[in-house]
Write a structure and sequence with these properties.
about 80 residues, mainly beta, globular
Length: about 80
């Protein structure tokens, strides 16, 4: 909890959900990172650029080896 500056944000957005990683710094410059989860609130502004791919479909499918929904990239 607290006020932080977004240093980086990357990941995927899709019709089946999103998977985002974020790095933030506090007012002393200490860096923290991890998964961006539901419930995070932007206090003032965040300048975010979202790019669409017309050549690939990004999907998530269950992986039997890991038990997680892993990213699958399919060329259109």
């Amino acid at each position: 909890k607290g006020f932080f500056e977004i240093i980086s944000l990357s990941g995927t957005l899709g019709i089946n959900g999103c998977h985002l990683h974020i790095s933030v710094s506090d007012d002393h410059g200490a860096l923290t990172g991890g998964h961006l989860l539901d419930g995070c609130t932007i206090y003032t502004t965040a300048e975010i650029i979202i790019e669409e791919s017309l050549n690939f479909i990004f999907n998530r499918e269950n992986d039997d080896a890991t038990g997680w929904k892993e990213l699958q990239i399919e060329k259109i």
